[in-house]
Every structure is written in structure tokens, then in C-alpha cells.
Amino acid sequence: MLLAVGVANAQDCSNSISACGCTISSAGIYNVDSDLNATQGLTSYGSCIDVAADNVKLFTNAHNITGAGSGVGIHLRSKARNVFLSSAGPRETYTTISGWKYGLESEADKVTAEGFLFNGNTTGVLLNGAENNHIGCFESFNNSVYGVWIRDGSGNQIDYAAMWNNRVAGIYIGCSSTGPSGQACTEEHGASSGNFIFEDYSYSPGVSTQSYGIAVEQGSTQNSIVDNWFDGNTVDGYFDGNTEGANLWHSNRYVTANQSFIQ
């Protein structure tokens, strides 16, 4: 019965990863060699894979990482730096991370991740106090709250990503687990600054259930939102809870926005 819900493990990952429940604790190159599932076991942090070391390269090789409704698919802990994650496998196939509270959670510095599909999580990507993360060329869809959530993070870049049917927002920069205007940010609580959101878009086949394309909460400032295309959202394509000039909005395409200065 314990295995059915994911017993906590405390083992280091080998360079060839074939089951959930291990921690990468030393630098090196790691490959996922089969599909991973939460029923195989979880780390003490409730993750399939924890990364807790500098200078790690993790290749998931189009093998899927499936959760059971809680925990984290890949968790980059705060002690990690200079981490590279790649989803790609042969013949242009990619890893889907689904069924987790957070598909990817990063608390780390200097991360590059590319090519993942985040589907059916609570939030696809959480940058939780992360700095200088570059998450690009991915899709985040059918997540019950956010496609991407930047909370208390700075210097991060989200680009060339497709977001659709995430219940609250495709990309949310702020403090609240419920969405825009839920809780104002302060320097001590969740404010995010200096992030760059570039060339992202929404794709909404059929009826969209996504309220906002990109939303920036009150108190999160000095973010740049440039050359994005979000339509098919049920409330607004773009939302900014701050006054004009607090964030840079430039050359974005949309149907509606909550502020006249958004462009």
C-alpha cells in the first residue's frame, strides 16, 4: 500500500535514472532511461527527482514523468546552481510532466530548461525564489491554476512558450495561489522583479478556460513583457495590478487588457 502512494526514499540518483524517488547530489550528466511514475517512490521532499548539486545536466530523453496529484515532478533545490534540463528524445519527441502539484519547481540559480510539456498539474512551472532561470521552448496547458508562476523571483526569462487552458493564468508574476488581486506583493512577501517574458503565446482550441494570459500582481515591478500574443482568455489577455511605468509592456498582441497603458 505504501508503494501505491509513493513511499519516501533517501537514495542518490545514479547516472541512469529508471525510477522516481532519487536525489542528484553531485555534479555530472544524468539520463532518464524509462518513464517515471510517483508510485515508484518519492524523495523526502515529495518529488520524483530532486536536484541538490551544482553543474548538473539532466536529460529526460522524452520519457514521461507522471504524478498522483501532489508533490513535484522535478525539484531544483536552492543549493543547486548551473543546472541544464533537456526534454528532447529521438525523432522530435518530448517529455510530458503531468499529475503533480508542480511539474517543475525551481528554487535554484542559473538554470536552463527547454522542451518540456507540462500538462494536467496544479501549476506547470513554479519559480519559487529562483534567480536567473531561463525556461524556454515549452508548452504548459490544462493546469488547474497556472501555466507558469514566478513567486519571489528575479532575473528569470520565459520565452517561446505556448500556454492554454490553465484555469487562472498562463503566466502569473505574484504572490497569490488564487490569481490576480488575490494578495498584493511586498519585498518581504513574494515580490518579483526584473523578469523577462518574451515571445510567449496562447493557443486555445475550442473553448478556453484560461482567465488571463499574463498577469502581474501589485507589488511586482520592473518586469518586461515584450512581443507576446495572448488571445482567447475569458477575462483579459493581460493584467497589471501596478501603476503605469512600474513594468514594461511593449509590442504585445491581445484582445483586452485591464490597463490602458498595456501595449
Brief overview, please?
By secondary structure, the chain is mainly β.
Q: What is the strand and helix layout of this fold?
A:
Blueprint: H1 2-5, E1 8-9, E2 11-12, E3 16-17, E4 22-24, E5 28-32, E6 36-37, E7 42-43, E8 47-51, E9 56-59, E10 65-66, E11 72-76, E12 81-86, E13 96-98, E14 102-106, E15 109-114, E16 117-119, E17 123-128, E18 131-136, E19 139-141, E20 146-151, E21 157-159, E22 162-164, E23 169-173, E24 196-198, E25 201-202, E26 212-216, E27 224-226, E28 229-230, E29 236-240, E30 248-250, E31 253-254
Parallel strand pairs: 1-7, 2-4, 3-5, 4-8, 5-9, 6-10, 8-11, 9-12, 10-13, 11-14, 12-15, 13-16, 14-17, 15-18, 16-19, 17-20, 18-21, 19-22, 20-23, 21-24, 22-25, 23-26, 24-27, 26-29, 27-30, 28-31
Shape verdict: globular
Q: How are the strands of the largest sheet arranged?
A: 2-4-8-11-14-17-20-23-26-29
**Alpha-carbon distance between the two ends:** 54 Å
Structure classification:
mainly beta
Mean pLDDT: 94
Task: State the main characteristics.
263 residues, mainly beta, Pectate Lyase C-like, ten-stranded parallel β-sheet, 1 helix, disordered N terminus
Describe the structure.
This protein is an all-beta fold and 263 residues long. The protein has a single domain (2-254), classed as 3 Solenoid (Pectate Lyase C-like). Helix content is 2%, strand content 43%. The strands form five sheets. A ten-stranded parallel β-sheet has the order 2-4-8-11-14-17-20-23-26-29, with no helix packed on it. Strands 3-5-9-12-15-18-21-24-27-30 form a ten-stranded parallel β-sheet, with no helix packed on it. The longest helix is centred in the first third of the chain and has 4 residues, at 2-5. The protein is globular, with a radius of gyration of 18 Å. Mean pLDDT is 94; it is low at 1-5.
